[in-house]
Design brief:
Helix content of chain A: 25-40%
Helix content of chain B: 10-25%
CATH architecture of chain B: Beta Barrel
Shape of chain A: globular
Strand content of chain B: 25-35%
Strand order of the largest sheet of chain B: 1-2-3-9-8-5
Number of domains of chain A: 2
Largest sheet of chain A: 7 strands, mixed
CATH topology of chain B: OB fold (Dihydrolipoamide Acetyltransferase, E2P)
Radius of gyration of chain B: 13 Å
Shape of chain B: globular
Radius of gyration of chain A: 25 Å
CATH superfamily of the largest domain in chain A: Type I PLP-dependent aspartate aminotransferase-like (Major domain)
Number of strands of chain B: 9
CATH class of the largest domain in chain A: Alpha Beta
Number of strands of chain A: 15
Structural class of chain B: alpha+beta
Largest sheet of chain B: 6 strands, antiparallel
Number of helices of chain B: 5
Distance between the termini of chain A: 58 Å
Strand order of the largest sheet of chain A: 2-8-7-6-5-3-4
CATH architecture of the largest domain in chain A: 3-Layer(aba) Sandwich
Oligomer: heterodimer
Distance between the termini of chain B: 12 Å
CATH superfamily of chain B: RNA polymerase II/Efflux pump adaptor protein, barrel-sandwich hybrid domain
Largest interface: A-B, 8 and 8 residues
Number of domains of chain B: 1
Chain lengths: 449, 129
């Protein structure tokens, strides 16, 4: 390691802070842990390291090599080649969210287009420049609601059908606020949901968060819930799947005050741990309470169109301690991917993708329900994901499927212990009829295996 | 710069007008001039809330800065001037009349006595220029 300080400089610094040696800084670490002997293998060359990592990587299955029926928050949609091609242009690829924003008109315009598309898709007035992922966007909605009521409404209600990881993230996000009371509403059976949720809303409630379609794939009309929430003066946040919004009514029609979600389905590949994309949209009246950046369009002194960062500077750079959130960055490259994806597809194309997902999922559900031992809840309305009651442990079934190159659905008991032997299956436009028929064939075999 | 004689002033540039035990609070002409064009007002207190001296009553944002309105007195908020939320420019145009901000039932009248007189406040502003 190269340290650019001379021994005499180091001695001078030690004298100033009153230490005898560098080791003195570490005395509060027990001595046996201070400089442990590391049991490391012999050094190897770059070429050998690459070999080793390739070996490790080959133990993974990439979704391109499998037939994928796994969703649960991240979905296997087709990404047009143009998305990656444009994204890798140096102008976009190397630029971080600009610190001197107005000089980067291209980046700002990209963000502005993203905001316009998200506002359109969700039916809301305004969208911010994006967040890290769907879970943090949901966390930001909670913070915005809390600050909107200036901390006077301590209760935040989370539907049990919100993605379990999102709920966990929200708990982490808000753990520094002693006065916030997060109420986990638990899972409610389909016929009583969302009425049951509406019953626990009160005058102490700041926000109610629901998911659309929910984690179990179900689609609900939240209009009545929205009314009850507003009657109590509280706010409604909806975490939505953006592809589903190509087909379903936008959450603005339920009176949603915040619409957030995971933007991964919009042209972003499935990666373990991201990068993903959180989107966040709201109503005009709440604009001062949102976190993140907001790009606006304006004209300069010569009436030429230009893009600027609106609102962010004062809220987060001057008054940091009073800001709703100090997340001022955005997920620029992924927001651009979503923007390119949506502009390639257009309104009609997005609807087509959504319809393909819907119809293929319903074909799959219908076929699976015919297999002896497998049952479906035929009362639930779903989009592209549905629950299958299996004749045995879904883990065993998945092992059988994987041997044949098929990635099965999520065993729901991972998150909901009461859902024993139930599997959450996702279908996208990438699943051909043949692949769905193959899944059914294998499910039948697995049941008898 | 206007500094009406009948008002009391705080070091943080708020004015107070006492009527019985009700204090009307606003920001001074000097303050609005320093902030320049005010674009946003948000009240941090609602009627019924108790406030202590120096608590933040409201937040003001202008095109060049953001600042807090601190309470010059302790007591109970009885009214806020909601008109400012839709028309923050009133603070620039008429800081002493139309742009009053809050009315507070004062719990300790000696706090009002401790505030500056108009002439002291003028001197205080000159020192800062």
């Amino acid at each position: 390691m190269y340290i650019p300080h001379t021994p005499s400089e180091r001695e001078e610094m030690l004298r100033v802070v009153g230490k005898k040696s560098l080791e003195d800084f570490f005395t509060n670490i027990p001595e046996e842990f201070r400089f442990p002997d590391l049991d490391l293998p012999e050094p190897v060359t770059e070429m050998e390291v690459e070999e080793q990592f390739k070996d490790l990587a080959s133990a993974n299955f990439a979704c391109d090599e499998l037939v994928c029926f796994l969703g649960a928050g991240v979905y296997n949609h087709y990404v047009p080649a143009a998305v990656d091609m444009l994204l890798r242009r140096g102008d976009f690829f190397t630029a971080y969210t600009p610190y001197q924003p107005e000089i980067s008109q291209g980046t700002l315009q990209g963000i502005f287009e993203f905001q316009s598309l998200i506002a359109n898709l969700t039916g809301m007035d305004v969208s911010n420049a994006s967040h890290y992922d769907g879970a943090t966007a949901a966390g930001e909605a909670c913070l915005s609601a809390y600050h909107h009521f200036r901390g006077k409404r301590p209760k935040i209600i989370l539907s049990g059908a919100v993605h379990p990881h999102y709920r966990e993230t929200i708990h982490t996000y808000l753990c520094g606020f002693d006065d916030i009371d997060i109420l986990e509403a638990g899972l409610v059976e389909d016929s009583l949901y969302p009425q049951k949720l509406a019953e626990i809303v009160d005058d102490q409630t700041a926000l109610v968060l629901v998911q659309y379609p929910d984690f179990l794939g179900r689609v609900h009309n939240f209009s009545d819930l929205g009314k009850v929430v507003h009657e109590h003066g509280a706010l409604l946040a909806v975490s939505a799947n953006p592809i589903a919004l190509g087909l379903l009514s936008p959450p603005s029609e339920f009176g949603a005050d915040f619409v957030v979600g995971e933007g991964q389905p919009l042209g972003i590949p499935m990666n373990f741990g991201g990068p993903y994309l959180g989107f966040f949209a709201t109503r005009d009246e709440l604009i001062r309470k949102i976190s993140g950046r907001l790009v606006g369009e304006t004209v300069d002194s010569q009436e030429r169109r230009g893009y600027v960062l609106t609102l962010t500077a004062r809220e987060q750079h001057i008054r940091r301690e009073k800001a709703t959130s100090n997340i001022c960055t955005n997920q620029g490259l992924m927001a651009l991917a979503a923007t390119i994806y949506l502009s390639l597809l257009g309104k009609g194309g997005l609807r087509e993708v959504a319809e393909l997902c819907y119809h293929k999922a319903h074909y799959a559900a219908q076929q699976i329900s015919q297999i002896p031992g497998y049952k479906l809840d035929d009362k639930s309305v779903f989009f592209n994901e549905f629950i299958v009651q299996c004749p045995k442990d879904p883990l065993q079934i998945n092992e059988y499927l994987l041997d044949e190159g098929v990635l099965g659905g999520l065993p729901l008991s991972n998150f909901y212990p009461e859902y024993q032997d139930q599997m959450l299956i996702a279908v996208t436009e990438k699943n051909s009829k043949e692949s769905i028929d193959l899944l059914c064939e294998l499910l039948k075999e697995a049941a008898n295996d | 710069m206007k500094t009406p004689e009948n008002l009391k002033y705080a070091k943080t540039d708020e004015w107070v007008k006492l009527d019985g035990n009700v204090a009307t609070v606003g920001i001074s002409d000097y303050a609005q001039d320093q902030l320049s064009d005010i674009v946003y007002v948000e009240f941090n207190k609602d009627p019924g809330d108790m406030v202590n001296k120096v608590d933040t009553l409201a937040t003001i944002e202008s095109v060049k800065a953001a600042g807090d309105v601190n309470s010059p007195i302790s007591g109970k908020v009885i009214e806020v001037n909601e008109a400012l939320v839709d028309h923050p420019e009133l603070l620039n145009n008429d800081p002493y009349e139309k742009a009053w901000m809050l009315k507070v039932e004062v719990s300790n009248l000696t706090e009002v006595d401790l505030l500056m007189s108009a002439s002291d406040y003028e001197k205080y502003c000159e020192e800062r220029d």
